[in-house]
Write a structure and sequence with these properties.
The complex is a heterodimer of chains A (95) and B (485). Chain A has 95 residues and is an all-alpha fold. Chain A has helices at 5-14, 21-38, 73-77. Chain B has a domain at 2-255: Amidase signature (AS) domain (Amidase signature (AS) enzymes, Alpha-Beta Complex). In chain B, helix 3 (23-35) runs antiparallel to helix 4 (48-61) and helix 10 (302-317) crosses helix 13 (367-388). Chains A and B meet through helix 1 and helix 2 of A and helix 10, helix 11, helix 12, helix 13 and helix 14 of B.
C-alpha cells in the first residue's frame, strides 16, 4: 500500500505540524520508502504471539502521594516563552 | 599539559588521588584543548568558567575518596543540567534552561566530577551521523569531513579528540555503540532499567538507556559504577544487586561460551568487517572461550519493528513541545495554528518524519497493522535471545555493517541511514546490555568495532570479556591532531 498526499496532510494535521505542498510531497516520498521497508514485517506470522509492551513486564510500583517540592512557581514559569511572569499565556481561545 | 589529555580516566583519577595532578591543572588542560578544537563542533554549550571555579574548590577542600575526584567531564546535551541550557540538539529547546538535574549527571557530580559543558547530538537523539542537530554537523577526529556516528556524535568526537577524559551518552537504537565504533572508543549500553532515565530528554521511553563512552573498558567500569543506581524517580528503574564493576574486572574468561549468530552476516557487508569478526572469534578462542554457532532467526525484522516502536513512542513523547510552557514559540492566528507553526519551525526534518510515522502507526485503523504487529515482532526478537542464552554467556557481532562515512553521504535516503543500526537495534528491543570495543581499522584507517551482547543485568560478564579482548587487541587511534587550530 502507499500513503497518498491527502493522508500525508491528514497525518501532519494530527501531528500538529504545519506543512506546505512542497514539504508534503517530500514527506510522501520519504514515508513511502520507509513504509516499504517496514512492510517486511508482514512476512512473519504473529497470530499466536503476545505483544511485548515493556521489557520490565511488571506492574508499576505505587508510592505515597506526597509533596516533595514546593514554592517553585518562579522556576516553572522562568522558561515561559511569553513575557508574562504570573501565567502561561496562549493566543486567545474564547471569543 | 599534553600529557594530561593523553591519560585514561583511571590513570587521571590515580594521579589526582596521589596529588600528582590538581583538578585545576586537568580542567585547564581540557579547556585549552577544547578552545583549539572548535571546528569539530563538539560542544553546544560550554560551562568553562564554572568548571574552573569548581576545580579550584575541589583542590581546596575536595574529597579524594570520591570515584571521580575533581575529574572534568562533558556530557551529551540530552541530559538536563540544572541552570545550564539543555537543547537536545533542537531549535525547539534552544533556549531551555532546566530547573532540575538528571539523575545520572547528579551521580557524576556527587562523586566529585566537574561539568565542562554539553556535547552536540542528533536532534532528540534521532540520527546515526550527528547530521540532524540544529547546531550543525560534528566532524570526527578520525578523518576530515567524516561523521562521528550518532546520535551521541558530539560525545564520541569529543572523547576521541581528547576534549573530555570520558563521557556519557544515550542509546535508543545504537546511539552509544555506533559512534563509539566509528571513533575508536568504548561504548556501553547497560541493561534497560540499570541507569535512571529521569531528566533525560525522552525519545523512545521503552528503549532509551544512558551509558558510558570511554577510552577503554576499565574506564567504562568506573563510569558504570557511578551511574548505575536504582532510582524511584524512574518507574522503570530496576532494583537489582549491582556489582562493583571496576574492582571486579577480570581477564580470565576461560570456559565462557560465546555465541556467533549467523544472521549477522548480512549482504554487502565489507570484507574487512567480516575478517574483523573472524579475528575476534579467533582471539576469544585463544583466550579460552568456547565458540558456539547460534541462530537469532528474527534479526532481519528488528530494524523495521524498531522504526514503528521508536517513532510511535517519540510522537507521544514529543507532543509536549507546543510552545506554551517552555522552548521555542512561533506565532499563529489562533492556538492551533500557533502549535502547528511552533512545531513546524522548531523541529528539523528527521524529527518531523519520525513524529509523522509515529502518529500514522498509532492512528485509528492502523494501530493493529503496525504498532501491535511491531510489538509482537519485538516479543519474537527477545525470545530469540532468551533461547540463545540457554547455551551461551554472551554474543559477539560486528558493531556496525560499515565504517564511518563522509558527511552528506547518506542524508538523502533515510532508509540507508537507518541501516547503520542493523546490529545494534535488536539489543534495545530486547532490553539487553551490549558494549562496542575498538578492534581494528579499515583501508582508510577509520576504526571498526566489535559488539558483545550480554544477558540482562550481567554487565560484569560483558566488561570482563571485553577487558580480556582489549588487552590483546591493543588498539590505538593514533590521531594526528589535524583539527587543532
Amino acid at each position: 500500500m502507499s500513503i497518498d498526499l491527502k493522508t500525508i496532510k491528514h497525518i501532519a494535521k494530527l501531528s500538529r505540524i504545519s506543512i506546505d505542498d512542497k514539504k508534503a510531497k517530500e514527506l510522501e516520498k520519504d514515508l513511502n520508502s520507509i513504509f516499504e521497508f517496514i512492510e517486511a514485517l508482514n512476512k512473519v506470522d504473529t497470530k499466536k504471539v503476545d505483544p511485548l509492551t515493556s521489557i520490565a513486564e511488571t506492574s508499576l510500583k505505587l508510592r505515597v502521594d506526597e509533596v516533595k517540592t514546593k514554592d517553585i512557581r518562579e522556576q516553572i514559569l522562568k522558561n515561559s516563552p511569553d513575557e508574562n511572569k504570573d501565567f502561561f499565556v496562549v493566543p486567545k481561545v474564547v471569543e | 599539559m599534553s600529557d594530561i589529555i593523553n591519560l585514561t580516566l583511571s590513570a587521571l583519577i590515580d594521579k589526582i588521588k596521589k596529588k600528582e595532578l590538581s583538578a585545576q591543572e586537568i580542567t585547564n588542560a581540557y579547556i585549552a584543548r577544547a578552545e583549539k578544537s572548535k571546528n569539530l563542533n563538539t560542544y553546544i554549550t560550554t560551562d568553562f568558567e564554572n568548571a574552573i571555579e569548581k576545580a579550584k574548590k575541589f583542590d581546596e577542600k575536595g574529597n579524594f575518596e570520591y570515584k571521580l575526584p575533581g575529574v572534568p567531564l562533558a556530557v551529551k546535551d540530552l541530559f538536563c543540567t540544572n541552570n545550564l541550557k539543555t537543547t537536545a540538539g533542537s531549535k525547539i529547546l534552544s533556549n531551555f534552561i532546566p530547573s532540575y538535574e538528571s539523575t545520572v549527571t547528579q551521580h557524576l557530580w556527587d562523586e566529585g566530577a566537574i561539568l565542562l559543558g554539553k556535547l552536540n547530538c542528533d536532534e532528540f537523539a534521532m540520527g546515526s551521523s550527528n547530521e540532524t542537530s540544529f547546531f550543525g554537523n560534528v566532524e570526527s577526529p578520525v578523518g576530515k569531513k567524516v561523521v562521528p556516528g550518532g546520535s551521541s556524535g558530539g560525545s564520541a568526537s569529543a572523547l576521541a579528540a581528547k576534549l573530555t577524559p570520558a563521557t556519557i551518552g544515550t542509546d535508543t537504537g545504537g546511539s552509544i555503540r555506533q559512534p563509539a565504533s566509528f571513533t575508536g572508543t568504548v561504548g556501553l549500553k547497560p541493561t534497560y532499567g540499570s541507569c535512571s532515565r529521569y531528566g533525560i530528554v525522552a525519545f523512545a521511553s521503552s528503549l532509551d538507556q544512558a551509558g558510558p563512552m570511554t577510552q577503554d573498558v576499565s574506564d567504562a567500569a568506573i563510569m558504570l559504577d557511578v551511574i548505575s543506581k536504582y532510582d524511584t524517580k524512574d518507574s522503570t528503574s530496576v532494583n537489582f544487586k549491582r556489582g562493583d564493576y571496576f574492582k571486579s574486572l577480570s581477564s580470565n574468561i576461560k570456559g565462557k561460551k560465546i555465541g556467533i549468530p549467523k544472521e549477522y552476516r548480512v549482504d554487502g557487508m565489507p570484507k574487512e568487517i567480516e575478517s574483523l569478526w573472524q579475528d575476534g572469534i579467533t582471539l576469544l578462542k585463544n583466550l579460552g572461550a568456547k565458540i558456539i554457532d547460534i541462530s537469532l532467526p528474527h534479526t532481519n525484522y528488528a530494524l523495521p519493528a524498531y522504526y514503528i516502536v521508536a517513532p510511535a513512542e517519540a510522537s507521544s513523547n514529543l507532543a509536549r513541545y507546543d510552545g506554551v510552557k517552555y522552548g521555542y514559540r512561533s506565532t499563529g492566528e489562533n492556538l492551533i495554528s500557533m502549535y502547528e507553526n511552533t512545531r513546524s519551525e522548531g523541529f528539523g526534518d528527521e524529527v518531523k518524519r519520525r513524529i509523522m510515522i509515529g502518529t500514522y502507526v498509532l492512528s485509528s485503523g492502523y494501530y493493529d497493522a503496525y504498532y501491535l504487529k511491531a510489538q509482537k515482532i519485538r516479543r519474537l526478537i527477545k525470545n530469540d535471545f532468551d533461547e540463545a542464552y540457554k547455551s551461551v554467556d554472551a554474543i559477539l557481532t560486528p558493531s556496525t555493517p560499515s565504517s564511518a562515512f563522509k558527511i552528506g553521504d547518506k542524508t538523502d535516503d533515510p532508509v540507508s541511514m537507518y541501516l547503520n543500526d542493523i546490529f545494534t537495534v535488536p539489543v534495545n528491543l530486547s532490553g539487553l546490555p551490549a558494549i562496542s570495543i575498538p578492534a581494528g581499522k579499515d583501508k582508510n584507517n577509520y576504526p571498526l568495532g566489535l559488539q558483545l551482547i550480554g544477558k540482562a543485568f550481567e554487565e560484569q560478564n560483558l566488561l570482563n570479556i571485553s577487558y580480556s579482548m582489549e588487552k590483546e587487541l591493543s588498539f590505538k587511534n593514533n590521531l594526528q591532531d589535524w583539527w587543532i587550530k
